[in-house]
Amino acid sequence: MTALQPVRGTRDLIGEDFRRHQAVTDAARRVSALYGFEEWATPIFEDTRVFSRGLGDSSDVVMKEMYSFEDRGGESVTLRPEMTAGVCRAMVSNGLTQTNLPRKVFYAGPMFRYERPQKGRYRQFHQIGIEVLGAAEALADAEVIACGWHIQQELGIDDGTVLEINTLGDAESRAAYRAALVAYFSAHRDALSHDSQVRLEKNPMRILDSKDEGDRVIVAGAPVIGGHLTEAAAGFYAAVRRHLDRFGVPYRENPRIVRGLDYYSHTAFEFVTDRLGAQGTVMAGGRYNGLVEEMGGPATPSVGWAAGIERLSMLLPVAPAAPRPVAVIPVGDAAEGAALDLLQALRRAGVVAEIAYRGNLKRRMERANRIGARAAVILGDEEIVAGVAQLRDLDAGTQEKVPLAEVPGRLG
């Protein structure tokens, strides 16, 4: 019988893979809390309209990649392809749009997109992210970026990434820029890919994000937004850069950055790396000022980013080591009860401790070596009578008698 395998585009997280994944999540959770972010968890699947309304009909995610299906009640539901829309929906659904603004939200969890699996990208993948909901100030944009940079510093990967920033301007700037793009791309319509021809009618800025090689040649000559910014939009962008300088976050400007979702405005940014081949973006986001409204809430200026845990974990310089346990080894049936008492005392003291379920002293010691134990605590009849344990350092090869009550403190 053929052994079953994980579905294409998914994978198991075991051993070192899981420890890398957990290290990224733990660091992000710890650092984001320092910035005042509260963790939220939203459902893994949502009403399809959460994403079709929130992501925009011209988005590749909506056009090609969503896992959508009808449930038994005939409702269209979608496995979440990203979490920003779900967070905004949760804010509206839970009546949080009018009080205690801004809301600062951190999240972590699995996402789902039907796309070609490749290095660092899976059909079930995992993201961390933060959102500041209800803040219109440029300082919020800069703080969000600074938090992402801080997380990368905490992980020790900041020397391998570069922050690229751009502005998408305000509504007036975007309208002027859109007209310029329509004029430019219309002159090259026949040479554009089919997808970009569709985007030309719906959202021409999305053409700038095309991965089609033929489109990229045309995009290289397209106008940039800088010449179309209003005074207010230019001032906002200058304030973001000024705050980033104050936070000590290095960056370079890239006028070709456009976020892949339709609701972005003003700041757009990406942390990129050359250490992962073609898949160079590890953290990306920007300002979105209309998404909460799309979910039925009031106008709520917001900004945030998301990052792929798989890609960040691949950049970790060293895989986190598994904790080395202490092996508790009873010698003889009579010693088992005392060994179990000591086992729990060690665990309550914060010491990772294991006991083999069967075997003589030799076999239990062999298991201790297999699991990489740093020490063995040996208890026999003589030790119990004397109120001591034999404490063996498995690295140094030394052994000494230690009073039972002192064992947890010695190993903690």
TrEMBL record:
<dbReference type="InterPro" id="IPR004154">
    <property type="entry name" value="Anticodon-bd"/>
</dbReference>
<dbReference type="GO" id="GO:0004821">
    <property type="term" value="F:histidine-tRNA ligase activity"/>
</dbReference>
<keyword id="KW-0067">ATP-binding</keyword>
<keyword id="KW-0648">Protein biosynthesis</keyword>
<keyword id="KW-0547">Nucleotide-binding</keyword>
<dbReference type="InterPro" id="IPR041715">
    <property type="entry name" value="HisRS-like_core"/>
</dbReference>
<keyword id="KW-0963">Cytoplasm</keyword>
<feature type="binding site">
    <location>
        <position position="131"/>
    </location>
    <ligand>
        <name>L-histidine</name>
    </ligand>
</feature>
<dbReference type="GO" id="GO:0006427">
    <property type="term" value="P:histidyl-tRNA aminoacylation"/>
</dbReference>
<keyword id="KW-0030">Aminoacyl-tRNA synthetase</keyword>
<dbReference type="InterPro" id="IPR036621">
    <property type="entry name" value="Anticodon-bd_dom_sf"/>
</dbReference>
<dbReference type="InterPro" id="IPR004516">
    <property type="entry name" value="HisRS/HisZ"/>
</dbReference>
<protein>
    <recommendedName>
        <fullName>Histidine--tRNA ligase</fullName>
        <ecNumber>6.1.1.21</ecNumber>
    </recommendedName>
</protein>
<comment type="similarity">
    <text>Belongs to the class-II aminoacyl-tRNA synthetase family.</text>
</comment>
<dbReference type="InterPro" id="IPR006195">
    <property type="entry name" value="aa-tRNA-synth_II"/>
</dbReference>
<dbReference type="InterPro" id="IPR045864">
    <property type="entry name" value="aa-tRNA-synth_II/BPL/LPL"/>
</dbReference>
<dbReference type="InterPro" id="IPR033656">
    <property type="entry name" value="HisRS_anticodon"/>
</dbReference>
<comment type="subunit">
    <text>Homodimer.</text>
</comment>
<dbReference type="InterPro" id="IPR015807">
    <property type="entry name" value="His-tRNA-ligase"/>
</dbReference>
<dbReference type="Pfam" id="PF13393">
    <property type="entry name" value="tRNA-synt_His"/>
</dbReference>
<keyword id="KW-0436">Ligase</keyword>
<feature type="binding site">
    <location>
        <begin position="263"/>
        <end position="264"/>
    </location>
    <ligand>
        <name>L-histidine</name>
    </ligand>
</feature>
<feature type="domain" description="Aminoacyl-transfer RNA synthetases class-II family profile">
    <location>
        <begin position="1"/>
        <end position="330"/>
    </location>
</feature>
<dbReference type="GO" id="GO:0005524">
    <property type="term" value="F:ATP binding"/>
</dbReference>
<feature type="binding site">
    <location>
        <position position="113"/>
    </location>
    <ligand>
        <name>L-histidine</name>
    </ligand>
</feature>
<feature type="binding site">
    <location>
        <position position="259"/>
    </location>
    <ligand>
        <name>L-histidine</name>
    </ligand>
</feature>
<feature type="binding site">
    <location>
        <begin position="82"/>
        <end position="84"/>
    </location>
    <ligand>
        <name>L-histidine</name>
    </ligand>
</feature>
<dbReference type="GO" id="GO:0005737">
    <property type="term" value="C:cytoplasm"/>
</dbReference>
<feature type="binding site">
    <location>
        <position position="127"/>
    </location>
    <ligand>
        <name>L-histidine</name>
    </ligand>
</feature>
<dbReference type="Pfam" id="PF03129">
    <property type="entry name" value="HGTP_anticodon"/>
</dbReference>
